Amino acid sequence: MEKQKLVILGGGESGVGSALLGKAKGYSVFLSDRGSLKDSYKRALEEASIDFEEGTHTKTRVLEADIVVKSPGIPDTVPLVVELVQAGIPVISEIEFAARYTKARLIGITGSNGKTTTTLLTYHLLKEAGLNVGLAGNIGDSFAKQVIDDQFDYYVLELSSFQLDGMFGTHLHTAILLNITPDHLDRYAYTFSNYVNSKFRILQNMTPNDHFIYFDDSEVIKDGLTSRSVDVKKLPVSLLNRVATGGYLVNETLVASIDGTSPLTIDVNLLPLKGKHNIVNMLAASLAALTVGVKPDAIEQGLMSFKNAAHRLEPVAVINGVQFINDSKATNVDSVYYALESMTAPTIWIAGGQDKGNDYGQLDEPVRQKVKALICLGKDNQKLISYYTGKIPAITETQDVSDLVQKALTWAVPGDVVLLSPACASFDLFRNYEDRGDQFKEAVKKAAKASAGK
Predict the structure, then answer these.
(1) Residues in the annotated binding site
(2) How many domains does the chain fold into?
(3) Which of the four pLDDT bands, split at 50, 70 and 90, describes residue 454?
(4) Positive or negative CA dihedral for 9, 10, 12, 16?
(5) Where is the domain boundary, 74, 92, 110?
(6) This prediction's pTM
(7) Sign of CA pseudo-dihedral 316, 322, 328, 333
């Protein structure tokens, strides 16, 4: 019997992982990437005797596929993908492919903002409680590669809308939907409802015994639930109302329960994550842990010991009483809103980069309350400067990270915060948001060393 032909489009972490899984499961595998592959990925493919190409897509070979696993970075509108779909060839995501080969229970997490923090926190809670758990999806090692050995009882998966778009039969046992705000609309015909529909794909294939955790204060999510028939165990999270089952905040206390009894209760002031958005993230992660049997006292210990990911409200250093915080991952306005909302001191805000059609009006209230100065870091800062002239007392711009830190120190007084939370993509001056954050941290630490040596 002839082997089924598996074609992988895109040779990044998910693509190479899918190729290795396909090989292990007996497919004839061909990987194609229009860009160039990392040396480490090429070595992995060569060691597994997997055929690949880079710098082009050989259309005739791609169209011979029985099944295609597509990188989430490749839009569905690319002509080659359109041709595959028209030819009736299934085009799926790595998550969909890998899920077919695991016996583990799956926890899936999506949202326009907060999904990385919530995914890492959920994984941390399960791991600290002693569960045999893997971390994958839009973070960490390839899900497909981990499934080759399939040694975990649980996987916590961060799921972007692009990954959800390529999922059809995947069954999540616990799903979290944190929020839906306009993002990536260029991939959804600039139609918000298309993006909303993409996020709600997280519910497909769920059963009445599965758990759906969602932010109940979001009108978009509530409207989406009203218009859909969803037969699952619903666990709402609210900052405004008490809920019988789910999670809520009352009198500075987090309360979470999946059955209305034996709730987790913990003083929010004792926890390392700050800001209302992180209360939602902590409640959602705690509920997810409860759905797989983690006890409240173990969850409490896990919450207390958690450290957030790099570039997400990451404390860098204190110089002359001024705290520097790296939030380079905040590449949209909604993320910046959450960051500013969590500030408890006068803030010098660093923003700018590649604007994605931002509406800065959403930030008017937190900027008025928190921001004393704005430093624009980008090649073209005119939109930011025009909008905030007259709204923020002091504004300047730079394209140099070291200069930025010195400007901030000139304006700051002890007790102030300097917050890098750009609201924009990084590609005008940096390779990516990590590069931007790393350069900022390096410049801050250099300044701190110089200050200490005075």
Answers:
(1) 111-117
(2) 3
(3) low
(4) positive
(5) 92
(6) 0.81
(7) positive
